[in-house]
Amino acid sequence: MLTTIRSREQEFLQYIREMMHYQEVLHLLFWDVRTGAPKKGLGLRADVIGTMSTKKFAMSISAEMKTYVEELSQAEYYQQLSPITRKVLEHAKKEYDLLIKIPEKEFASYEVAKANASAAWEEAKHASDYSIFQPHLEKLVETNKRFIDYWGYRENPYNALLDQYDPGMTVVRLDEVFTKVKAKLIPLLHRTQEAKSKPDTTFLGAAFPVEKQKDFHHFLLRELGYDFGAGRLDETIHPFAVPLNRKDVRITTKFNESYFAGGLFATIHEYGHALYELNIADELIGTSLCTGTSTGFHESQSLLWEKMIGRSKPFWKQYYPTLSTYNQEQFHGVGLDDFYRAVNSVSPSFIRIEADELTYPLHVILRYEIEKGIFANEIEVRDLPEIWNQKMQEYLGIVPPDDRRGVLQDMHWSAGMFGYFPSYALGYLFAAQIRNTMRKEIKEIDQLVEEAKFTPIKQWLAENIHVHGKMKDPDQLLLEVTGEPLNSDHLLSYLEEKYSDIYKLDK
Amino acid sequence: MLTTIRSREQEFLQYIREMMHYQEVLHLLFWDVRTGAPKKGLGLRADVIGTMSTKKFAMSISAEMKTYVEELSQAEYYQQLSPITRKVLEHAKKEYDLLIKIPEKEFASYEVAKANASAAWEEAKHASDYSIFQPHLEKLVETNKRFIDYWGYRENPYNALLDQYDPGMTVVRLDEVFTKVKAKLIPLLHRTQEAKSKPDTTFLGAAFPVEKQKDFHHFLLRELGYDFGAGRLDETIHPFAVPLNRKDVRITTKFNESYFAGGLFATIHEYGHALYELNIADELIGTSLCTGTSTGFHESQSLLWEKMIGRSKPFWKQYYPTLSTYNQEQFHGVGLDDFYRAVNSVSPSFIRIEADELTYPLHVILRYEIEKGIFANEIEVRDLPEIWNQKMQEYLGIVPPDDRRGVLQDMHWSAGMFGYFPSYALGYLFAAQIRNTMRKEIKEIDQLVEEAKFTPIKQWLAENIHVHGKMKDPDQLLLEVTGEPLNSDHLLSYLEEKYSDIYKLDK
User: Fold this and answer.
1) B52 Cβ under 8 Å from any chain A Cβ
2) Hey, is the C-beta of A285 within 8 angstroms of any chain B C-beta?
3) How many CB atoms lie within 10 A of CB B496?
4) What is the residue-wise DSSP string for B366-378?
5) I want to staple A331 with a disulfide (CB 3.0 to 4.6 A). Which of A111, A324, A505, B194 is the partner?
6) Contact B300/B434 with Cβ under 8 angstroms?
7) Other Cβ atoms within 10 Å of A384 Cβ, number
């Protein structure tokens, strides 16, 4: 009997490993399309991506998968499984259940609806005409509501969606933290706007030759210890990190001659994502657990590096002198403090992905509230532009001049990604909470950063967070690492302290 | 009935299309590994390549494939199929038969034997010790002999192998042409060696900055009309062309600061391969016919561009003045004629892939004769080093100082690729024969090349050769294009004329 179980367990793990091989292929296809696949081949390439996605999808709901899930879940089998296999099984079962509950026909027509919605969204955004997108969005929303009925949910239908990105996250918990965040950030934003001493950002727009920027990015990545034997840096329109496998995690960035800061912080951000994937335990290689535990946790690791280390004063004490040698004229007469303040300047803006650290969470909360309202049947899709603009006025004090820079700016809804946005804000909350613990446990952390000694920080993150991959759920991980559940105080006091300093606000 | 046939035909074509999607994935994985995939991830990547190869392989011998082949081959079905489907079916059936005749167990152990042989060959080559490789090569040869028995063959067992690379090619035909080639080239080589006026090649070794070389390669590819919207140029150790799909055919080259010519002609060579794939008829997209008709024919297209256009005097009349501006010092005092002679200089050398146009076919014939002898049971694997060196002495007048630069230089045998080498020489023969016809049909072709007017040449090649893909077999295609079967006279007179001029030989 034990032999049978062991061999079934191995067969199951091999089956999962093959699914992960499809995933590596899909990630490579994704990377290739964005980093320079010839344009004319993309139409035919799309069919290849379709075939590979379909194959992977078919494996997650196959009769074979059903047998594994049912068989290995039986008590006499389950008790014999290794802890890793149990967790892999749990994930496989969860995915299987999500997919199998939806009638095949509805699933297929949803895929078509998403494709149509994406095309309509592109057109609508280009024309800045919400009415082109609206019927498509309505259809996707209706379909998701029906899916939620098939799946079932606890307390709130929207929870079923949240759970797919940050397992365990609920409306009740988000409402609690986001209310506090709004209550603190909106007044703090006003105080920065009214501050007398504002950062001078004009020098940021000076020309910085792209080749020089590239050199500096490479220099910085080597300083941070990004392993070019297990990754590479390429250029794309939207920067990203993509894990091909546990020893091949690639990042991309962008280069704008007249705004070097955008690409520079994007590189550090993506480095944070990559570091997470590169530090996962060897024993999880080839399993579905070999990735970050949730969307929000992943974002916490990129934000920790980009915002909390990469935009900190100790960091630039070390690197500003070097940076200035890469483009001397631009930084002539700009002191360290001027530089530090400029790259942390705050300004309400229309576009989420261009927002600063202080206004960014407000962009996300706006989207969260809209999604929550939609799935509680309290908001109609046709009213989104109006609601969007009202909330922009309320939270950021500005109203987008058109829907292109408003409700139509993000691709998420057109791809059916409802419940994703909150993860971006959770990233900030997790990051600040983790930072708080890290500062207690690593002595003189600012000194270490100032001396470019990142090893203790990287080791701490690896041992406490990265190594676990998906073996620990986000809730459990956050509790184990920080000793408390989600707590917005850490983000709020971090922001209060940092921006009071930068804007020289009265305490 | 007709509806059933049409729908079965469409299902079959869809099945083939999926196989081609796996092929695109495999080609992308290949390209990625060579152009810059992070080294540390390659171990895990190998498993992904293994899974994808296995999936594609499984599709070619599946029960589903068997049903398609059997069903569609029946007369009442077959008569209703489109000409394209018939040809696709023919290829699928041929592959199915080749694979299915080999007992599954033997196939699996052959895969292991090849993997072991490859590793042993690497080690043997590094140590320049044939004895490390010999037992592995013996095993691969024995296995292939057994496979040939399973497959059956006409006239000569070796024909079964030749047919897999250049369908229809036989020992009788190769013996005939290769005997003539040897009889002509060996004395011609001697005459160049005894010539009083030899090209001065010293300037070729001067430093040519790599960035400048890259710029010139890009310039030249644009001149030739390589479509960067449907391809790209990257750098690899060994240059290659790889079709991802019909509208995405990528090439690679190499850059050596102290030998620009190697990379330059590699780029033109790979351009020739890419042009073939990019010109195949739209209606063959997604079928197994959407590639060159044979290994030898593919090589003919690369050689035509590299050797017969790219190393011709009219070509450099146009481009030498431009080339010299990219690295003025190097070409100072070197006239057009000096340049033309230098890049066509002849010299017997040990390594096939570094050989010139005149000695290259002799390298291939040597390998052909060895393979032929092995499969006729006239040559023992243990005697290869000795036979190799004897033939090198006889054909090229030089003997490799060690097996690394002799019998161990190529990877083909370690990968079980017996019957492949002749295609390289066939490439020369096809190219010269095609060139002969093209020169008759395109008026003032030298003038066109000299004026950088490549369109008529490209159009002629596209219409007569490229567009057909695998719809026409190589024999048929050669006959239709040139009006005669394989004829070595064209290569021999081309070489005689060209090298008599370059070495100022008495006619």
Assistant:
1) yes
2) yes
3) 17
4) HHHHHHHHHHTT-
5) A324
6) yes
7) 22
For this structure, is B270 an active site residue?
A: yes
Contacts of A227 (CB under 8 A, 6+ apart): A278, B38, B40
pLDDT score recorded for residue A507? 65
Report ipTM for this prediction. 0.94
Distance CA A130, CA B490 (A): 67
Give chain A positions within 8 Å (CB) of B17: 47
pLDDT for the residue numbered B1: 61
CA distances from A497 to A166, A188, A348, A503, B334 (A): 28, 11, 19, 10, 70
Q: Tens of pLDDT along A298-345?
A: 999 999 999 999 999 999 999 999 999 999 999 999 999 999 999 999
Report the residue of chain B nearest A25, measured CA to CA: B25
Q: Return d(Cα A420, Cα A306) in angstroms, integer.
A: 21
Residue A246 contacts B where some CB pair is shorter than 8 Å: yes
Mean of pLDDT values over A244-250: 98
pLDDT category at B4 given cuts 50, 70, 90 is confident
Per-residue pLDDT reduced to its tens digit, B362-418 = 999 999 999 999 999 999 999 999 999 999 999 999 999 999 999 999 999 999 999
Q: Does A35 touch chain B (CB under 8 A)?
A: no
> Quick one: which of A358, A351, A387, A386 has its CA closest to A372?
A387
Model pLDDT, residue A108: 87
Chain B residue closest to A232 (CA)?
A: B38
- pLDDT at residue A6 in the model: 86
Confidence of residue A498 (pLDDT cuts 50, 70, 90): very high
Q: How far apart, in whole angstroms, are the C-alpha atoms of residue A94 and residue A438?
A: 33
Neighbouring CB atoms inside 10 A of A278's CB total: 22
What CATH number is given for A202-343+426-471 in this structure?
Answer: 1.10.1370.30
Record: contact A38-B285, CB cut-off 8 A: no
State the count of interchain CB pairs (< 8 A) between A and B. 108
Tokens 């360290």, located at residue = A336
- Among B13, B15, B27, B28, pick the best mutation site for testing chain A contact (most A Cβ within 10 A): B28
Q: What SS3 class is residue B327?
A: coil
Pick A2-150's CATH classification: 1.10.20, 1.20.58, 3.60.21, 1.10.30: 1.20.58
Domain segments of chain B as ranges:
2-100
Closest B-chain CA to A247: B41
**Token pair recorded at residue B432:** 């010269």
Reported as a single tens digit per residue, the pLDDT across B52-79 is 999 999 999 999 999 999 999 999 999 9
Residues of A in contact with B30 (CB under 8 A): none
| Three-class DSSP category at A236 | coil
E strands within A18-97? none
The helix (run of H) or strand (run of E) holding residue B252 is strand B248-253
Q: Is any Cβ of chain A less than 8 angstroms from the Cβ of B247? A: yes
Give the H or E element holding residue B471. none
Averaged pLDDT for residues A65-75: 96
Q: Is the pLDDT of residue B507 over 70?
A: no
Question: Does the distance separating the beta carbons of A285 and B40 come in below 8 Å?
Answer: no
Model pLDDT, residue B273: 98
- Determine the residue type at B480: E
β-pair partners for A243: A249
